[in-house]
Automatic annotation (TrEMBL):
Name of this protein: Aminoglycoside phosphotransferase domain-containing protein
Comp. bias intervals (Low complexity): 211-221
Region of interest called Disordered, as start-end residue ranges on this chain: 208-228
Recorded superkingdom: Eukaryota
InterPro entries assigned: Kinase-like_dom_sf (IPR011009)
Length: 269
């Protein structure tokens, strides 16, 4: 799984990033993409979850190859988590640009789904594996036991105790509903792991961040010359396209809001 995701990112930067940049998506530009990973992604009919034999094959493939990805410098940008209201809004504007770059473009999505993940997202059922589903009930029981004393009213609500069983029962249906074809309405390119640590935010004087040593100009840099900002100086830049592929944009939005945004910001709508 990890080898296929690394190859996915290499293919994204080598084959699709130039076109998407031309469509208005701000990206860190790749300076070098050297990918030599001889491993195929799991077939559509394969059982979810890697087997012992699959692990051995991936290990052998890894030893036969590798990958080197070099991007332009992200100087002038920084990362933080969780995001406040303005940072969350900026990150969602960036996400909208990503989704708009391939929105309902059946020809592009068809070509992309043959080279990137057929269905994007690290959370998809086929990527999580059967073992994770089997262990969910036991893990949830332990979670409830550990945390119920801290929020007794929440854990006393009807259905909470059986939440894992309900998820396990509904997971196949949800997976099918979130697996569009390139021709489906609302189908687009999704990031697949859109969280705060996969976003660079443009530095500004209004942002509060740990103090850093002042940058010094290179002796070879002409006086008064401004350094070139990555991504054409966009307010935010996405990184990490290991799980990028075909999907519905709201899956990225749901992931981002639940994973990266401060509780107070969610309360503000």
């Amino acid at each position: 799984r990890d080898l296929a995701s690394n190859r996915n990112e290499a293919r994204f930067y080598r084959e699709f990033a130039p076109l998407l940049s031309g469509r208005g998506l701000p990206l860190l530009q790749p300076l070098l993409v050297d990918e030599r990973i001889a491993v195929d992604a799991p077939s559509e009919g394969a059982a979810p979850g890697p087997s012992g034999e699959a692990y051995a094959q991936e290990e052998a493939a890894l030893r036969r190859g590798g990958m080197l990805l070099l991007l332009e410098s992200a100087e002038g940008y920084w990362q933080t988590s969780p995001l406040d209201t303005s940072q969350a809004a900026e990150s969602l504007r960036l996400l909208a640009k990503l989704h708009a770059s391939a929105w309902q473009d059946a020809e592009f999505l068809s070509a992309m789904s043959g080279r990137l993940h057929r269905i994007g997202g690290y959370w998809t059922l086929d990527k999580r594996g059967e073992e994770e589903m089997r262990l969910m009930r036991a893990h949830w029981r332990q979670y409830v036991e550990d945390f119920a004393p801290l929020a007794p009213e929440l854990f006393a609500r009807p259905g909470i105790a059986e939440l894992a069983a309900r998820i396990e029962r509904l997971a196949p249906w949800v997976a099918r509903e979130l697996a569009p074809t390139p021709e489906d309405p609302f189908a687009t390119l999704i990031h697949g792991d859109y969280k705060a640590m996969n976003i660079f935010l443009r530095e500004s004087e209004a942002e509060e961040r740990p103090a850093a040593a002042p940058a010094t100009a290179s002796p070879d840099e002409p006086a008064g010359k401004r350094r070139r900002l990555a991504g054409r100086g966009a307010p935010a830049l996405p990184i990490d396209f290991q799980w990028t592929g075909l999907g519905f944009g709201m899956s990225d939005v749901a992931m981002h809001l639940s994973h990266s945004v401060a509780t107070a910001a969610l309360g503000e709508g």
